[in-house]
Structures are given as structure tokens and as C-alpha cells.
Amino acid sequence: MTTTRIAVRAGDPRAHVDLVVGSLAPRLVSRTSNSAHVAVSAAGMLLLGGDVVHVEVDVGPDSTLELEDVGGTVAYPATGAASRWTLDARVGSGGTLLWRALPLVVAEGARVERRTELGLDTGARAVIRETIVLGRQGESGGTLTSQVSIADADGPVLFETLEVDGSAPEPGVLGPARVLDAVVAVGFRPGAEPGAMQLDQPGAVARHLGDQTHESRLDDVWARWSTGARSLGGVVAPAPASGGSPPREVEARSIE
Amino acid sequence: MQPAPQTITLLLADARLPSGGHAQSSGVEPALLAGMPVADVPAFLRARARTTGLVDAGTAVVARHSALDCLPVAPIERAWAARTPSRAIRDASEDLGRGLLRLAGRFWPDVRSSLAGLDHSPPRPLVLGAIAAHAGMDAESLVRLTVYDDLACAVAALLKLEPGDPADGVAMVLEACSSIEPHVAAVSTITATHQIPAASAPYAEAWAEAHAVTTRRLFRA
């Protein structure tokens, strides 16, 4: 297992960005003095039985990191061990993490254990999109355990474990739905959206449950909530490109 | 003379207990209003027991432990709320907690002090845990009580919403209660908030939120 690492720290004149290629390959798209936009794609064939993907995200104080998936992920049938996907993210005081993940498709026969751990320092916030699809077209889907654990400096904000088996749907859990699409906002109270759940601590969860990802209306919710978070984070507008050298694409090293 | 802990367990599981349980359907009315077929109710109750049921049971066990050790209850309430993202479900649990606390405060005044330090009504599992501590109830009985009480509420409501053979309802309760037996020993020994189960039920949560804003309902949740 090689850890993929994505870190940003506000700096002058440009934010310091640290990208380490692991199972995923992060690539810098743009940055300002206090923000970075990073695209993430798979560095190789993912996600096979026994694969262990570990992603570490570190957003510095008063910095903003915008992460975007380039392609979705398919978890393929596993004959032996389950595949594991772990995200450890930390957002420093006053920082902002925006992660727009593309769907994770759990093919029939696949076994996936996913863990997302997000720690927010004082005044930090995050908006995360996550989409789970049980089965490729015409399949009922494999088994997935997806644990989400989000905490701020004072304690847990959202802690939930989704346990599903595509071959044994449970009414009230995912029932007949193949798709669970969600936008999770934490660290602030985002604008009201019909049907969105207001968490006890500052934060909200909007979900779409259905048969097809394209039926989801969460693109709009994502846009509104991430705009809200971005404005709280005070992202500096990108400087004009003239004169400056474009960010270099690098592997397994820092961009100063 | 103190009543036996077993008597207290029976009392708390009794649907006739004046604590407000008759106003709740444990997610059954929200599910049926959202279009879940009645035939799915037995499987819905098993899923409810595995998800919300064990979250509440684990919370109650930690609350009992904290009351016995005189530890603050606020971190337990926060752990429970983080595992209960639907405000409609949190509100329903707080209604039940308020009713139970009103009753329990009369017989076990220490229950109130065990639950001090919260800025709103304690949810049902916290009150059940504190009662268990002060009435001498063991943790395994508390786990079974927490799950049973919720399911018994569900089936009592089902008979009002979709009248059928009451014996079928009893069978559903017993079946769903039995389905969590493999977890009872493990859940009854937890002592820290991070060990509380967190299994989620996204559809049930969405149904609860929709139900909270409809005018076509008999039950609070």
C-alpha cells in the first residue's frame, strides 16, 4: 500500500501544495495564495480484491483545497480479500475542503470496506460529495461497508456506517435503490434544501436514493453548498496568468 | 422495599406506561406513507432493530455505565446525535425521553441528576440508561428492552394503520428481537462512546424527514 497524499498550506505568493502519488495520482489544476484545485485519477487498475487504497488529505489553516475526481471507481468481483479504501482528512483552523467524488460502483461479487475520517479544527468546514452505486448495469451489486466519521475539536459531528449487500436489500436501508448519492456539509449551516437533514452540530446531509445517478438533483445542492463554504473560506481570486509560470505537474514531490 | 429490577424492566416495556409511546410508530407510519409495501414491514423491523435499534441500545448502555460512574452525559448525547442525522428522528426520541423522564423523576430522583448538563431534553436511550443504572437493571436487559420497546411501538401503530391479525404483529416483534440476539452480548459490554454502533438506514431517515412535514399523519414519527 502506498499512501496518496494531498496537502495545501496558504503561502505567499502561492499556496504550498504537496502531492504524493499512491494508488491515486493527484494533479494540480490551479492555485492562489490560499487555495489549490487538485484533480485526482487512479494511478493504475482499481479496485481489485485485496487492494488497499489510502488517501491522506491535509488542509492548512485558512487554506482551501478543492478536490475533483477525474473518473469514477469500479470495485471488481473479489475472490479473496475485500478491497479497502481509507481516507484520512484533516482541515486546519479556518480551512475549507471541497471534495467532489465521482461514483464508486460496487460490482456484483465485490467486497468493499470504505472508511472516511475527517477532522475539523476550530472554524474549519468541508463539503463532500459521495456516490455509491450497487452493481454495474443489470447487476444487483456486491457488499459494502462504508464508515463515515466526522469530528470537530469538541467531538463527533456525523458518525454512520452503511452496511449493504446488493443481494439482500433491506427496506429502510437502501431497499430497492441502487444509487445512494450524498452531499455532506459540515462545520457550517448550509442553505436549506428540500429534504436535507439538519445535523445536531453545524452541518447538513442531502441524499438522493434511486436507480440511476443521472436522476439525482444533487449537482445543484453541491454547487450551492460548496459556493457557501468557499465564500466563508475567503478564497482569493486567481491572479492573471500573464508572466507567471504555469503550475508544474509533478509526481511524489512537493510544489514549492 | 425497592421493586425488583426485573419488575422495572417489565414496567418500562409495557405499552400502557404513561410515557408517550402511544404517539410513536417507530418509523412505520413514515415508511407506509412513503409507499413501502405492508408486506415489507417484517423486514423493515429487522433492519430497524439492526440500525436505529442498536444505535439506541448502545447509547443506553454507555449512559447506564456513565450514570453508575457519575460521568458527564453530554458526550454521550453528542455521540448519539452524530449517529442520528435526521432531526425528525432526534425530535421523536427527545419527545419519548421527556415523557420517560417525567415519570422516572418521580421514582428515581437521581435519574435527573445523572442527566444534568444537557441544554435540551435527553433522548430516549439516555433516559433508559439512567433509569437502568438507578433501578439496578443489568446491561443485557437494557439492550433488549431498548430494542423491544421500539419494535412494540411499531407494531402497535401498524395495527392502527393497517389493521390485521394482532398475532402477526407479535410474531414480527419476536422475529426482529431475535435477529439482534447475536449482538446483545457485545453491545451490552461497551463503555465508551466511540464503541456505540452506528449502522445507518438512509431510506428510513428520508421517510422520517418527509413525515415530519406532512399533515396526513396519526403518529409523531
TrEMBL record, chain B:
Pfam family, one: UreF
Domain of life according to the entry: Bacteria
GO molecular function, one term: nickel cation binding
Keyword Transferase assigned: no
Keywords annotated in UniProt: Chaperone, Nickel insertion
InterPro entries referenced in this protein's UniProt entry, alphabetically: UreF, UreF_sf
Keyword GTP-binding recorded: no
Name the record gives this protein: Urease accessory protein
Organism name: Agromyces kandeliae
